Amino acid sequence: MGDLMTKPSATPGPVGAGPAVGTPPRRRRRRVDPTARGVLPFALPAVLATAVLVLVPIGYTIWLSVSDRQADGTNSGFLGLANYAEMFDSPQFWSSLKITLFLFVVCLLLETVLGLALGYVMSLDVPGQRIFQGMMLIPAITASVAVGLVWLLIMDPTLGAANQILGAVGIDPVVWLGDPDVAPWAIALVDIWQWTPFMALIISAGIRSLPEEPFEAAALDGASGWRLAWNVGLPLLRPVLTVAMLLRTVDLVRFFDTIYIMTQGGPVNSTNTLNVYGYNAGFVDNQPSYAATLQIALLALVIMIAGLFTWFRQRAAR
What we know:
This protein is mostly helical. 67% of the residues lie in helices and 2% in strands. Pfam families: BPD_transp_1 (PF00528).
C-alpha cells in the first residue's frame, strides 16, 4: 500500500533523450551580450541624429503632401489624398517617371558593362597602375555642377568640341541639347562618362579579392578565355556587382544636378525627371504641397528599386 500511494518518481532516460518523464521543462534564458549595455549609450546619439535628420524631414514632407500649403507659408488645411490624385492624373508625372526610368536603365546597364571591362583593366598589375587609377577617378570626384558646365560647352552646337570632332570625320553637326530625341541620350552620355570609373574601381577591387582555386579547377577541366570568365568569374563577382549597382541606383533615380545645369528639364520636357519636375513645381510654380507629393513618389520609387537590389544581393550571398 505504501508503494502504491507514493507519487511516481522521475525515471532518468538515456543520454540525449531529453528531460525525464515528470520533470517540468526548463526555460531557456536568453543570453544577453554583456557588451550590449555598454554600447547603447554610444549608439544613442547616432540613433537620435538619424531620427532628426531623416525621419523628421520625411514626416514633414508627408504632412505637406496631404495639406494645402501655399508659397507664402499659409496652410488652408488637410486635403487628404487630393494631391496624390492630382499627381496620378497628370500626364507630366507619367512622362517624368518614364524619363527617370529611361535614364536609370540606360545609365546603369552601360556603366556596369563598361565598368566591368574597365575594372578588369584596372585590376591588372602593370606599370603606372596607381597613376592610371587616380586619373580615371577625376570625373567621379569632380562636382556634378562643374561637370555639367564643362559638357554644356562641349555640346555647344556652334563652338562645341563635340560637333567639331564630328565635322572632322564628315558627320553633320548634332543639336545635342536642343533636340528632344537627342537630349536624353546626351544627359546619359555625361553621366556614363562621369560615373563609369567609380563602378570600375569597385569592380577592380572585387576582381582582386576573388579566390584563385575555382579558376585553377576550371582550367584543369578545360575552361579558358570567355568560358572561364563567364562561368566562374561572373558568378563569384555577382555580390560585388550587386553592391556597385545598388550604389548607382540610389543616385540615378534621384538624378538632378547635371540635368538642371544643362537643360533644366528641356527641351519640351524631354529630360524632365521626377526630381526636376518636383523642383520646378515647388520653386518655379510655387506649389509646395504638390512638390512634396512628387518627392514622396520619388522616395517610394527609390525604396522599391533599392529593396529589389537588396533582395538580389541576399540571394547572391546564399
